[in-house]
Amino acid sequence: MLGLLASLALAAPDAGGRLETHLRLGTAGCTPSTAADCRWLDFQDLLVLRGRLEDAPNDGISWRVRGAIRLRTPTGVDEVADASDNTRIQPLTFDLDEAWIRMARVQDPVVEVIIGQQRHAWGVADGISPVDVVNPYDLADPTRFDKRLGLPTASLSLRGGRVAAEAVVAPLFRPARMPGELDILADADTLFDFADLGAPNVELGELETRTDVPDARLGFAGAGLRLSAQTPDVDLALVGYRGRDSLPQVGGEALLVGFASNSDRVDVGVPVVYPVFWMAGLEAKAALPGDIAMWVEGGAFLPEETAITARRGQLDGLVGLGVIDEIPDPLPRTVIQDGQVFGRWVVGIERFFGRALINAQWVHGTPLERSRGEIKDYAALAVQVTASDTVQVLASGLTDFEGAMGTVELHALVRDQVELTMGTTVATGGSESTIGRIAPLSHAHFGAEIAF
């Protein structure tokens, strides 16, 4: 081990990075007369410094470290004393996307072991990939589902000819990064009806989360296997995974608080869990006649059932206060995730037409839809036009037929060094639309980045 560390330290690694900055001005509800009240949105990318360091001392050993430092919009300054805390007026976060060591036997069949912080990019779909479940979601930008966080894993890969196998073990759980601009409890008030407890006059007060994050025990580890094969006509892969959902789900016993001082208004601590799921999936990608690329990707998911109910001991307290006459039997129970098998899948095609690349997909289910009754269908279309060596235009749209989201971006390369981006994202939809929930995040965007 000491010899390995010494060889890493003495190597001349390859290094690189990128500096980028983004400004996002919320446009939802803004009019020319209220422009001064338009709000800057925080997608946690106000200023991002990305860096990469990697090397391969020999054919059988390599390593990589890749991360980012983020400067976020100042928050949390509630009183003058808070302004003396630099973490409040200039909040910085550090992301470690990758930090691994690879050991391999390069003879056929190739055997490869990688240990450390990794990104396992399973799937062939574009943007929304149903089987890309090993790494937790990064929803700092809640309009995108293609970003993931690094995760400590150990992987074993075998490759011989046109076939390969990859086994992954994730010993530690990491939750998804949630968006700062959306309230995950926005609809939680619909879960609580005190009339079911015999107290129709009691109002729901404040909601707060009580999160149960899996700890570092072996039983909470995730594990997966991916088998792939390349043929002259199609690339195929079978995948399987067992782990915990990185997105939080309401489930458990709600904690009723505040009723001792005001029996007509009850605050609730909402239990949030990360349920176990099993997934079996398929990937296929092929080149069709007419220079068309086509892909199919899907997974069958068996999630753990989650439900929310009240604590019997606390209901005894409500009886003692005279808020309710007796404890209901059985206790009211609201099922959030029914524990039944459901599927998510994507079918897509892509083709160049001169300088334009057209990408169309049909999406059945997103990561936010986690039971059969929630699954919706979406149509997605993206167009990329390379106008010149320095100018590119991107346009994309997504609809669930109850709401829609569209993005247009102009990318320009300045003096072969700086890439400027200007664009806008607009989302609209009713309360029944998944897309409608992110309508408040419609915004205009300006960014710049430079690689080094």
Question: Any chance you could write out the topology, listing elements then pairs?
Answer:
Blueprint: H1 2-10, E1 14-26, E2 47-58, E3 61-71, H2 86-89, E4 92-105, E5 110-118, E6 151-160, E7 163-170, E8 203-211, E9 222-230, E10 234-244, E11 249-250, E12 252-257, E13 265-273, E14 276-288, E15 292-303, E16 306-310, H3 312-320, E17 333-337, E18 342-353, E19 356-364, E20 377-386, E21 391-399, E22 403-414, E23 418-429, E24 443-451
Parallel strand pairs: 8-13, 12-16
Antiparallel strand pairs: 1-2, 1-24, 2-3, 3-4, 4-5, 5-6, 6-7, 7-9, 9-10, 10-14, 11-13, 12-13, 14-15, 15-18, 16-17, 18-19, 19-20, 20-21, 21-22, 22-23, 23-24
Q: Could you name the ranges where pLDDT drops below 50 across 5 or more consecutive residues?
A: none
The quaternary state of the protein chains shown equals single chain
Query: How are helices and strands ordered from N to C?
Result: HEEEHEEEEEEEEEEEEEHEEEEEEEE
Count of helical stretches: 3
Largest sheet: 18 strands, antiparallel, barrel
Helix content: under 10%
Query: Over the alpha carbons, how many angstroms does the gyration radius reach?
Result: 25 Å
The residue-averaged pLDDT reads 87
Number of strands: 24
Distance between the termini: 33 Å
Provide the β-strand percentage band. over 45%
Q: Give the overall shape, derived from the CA principal axes.
A: globular
Structural class comes to mainly beta
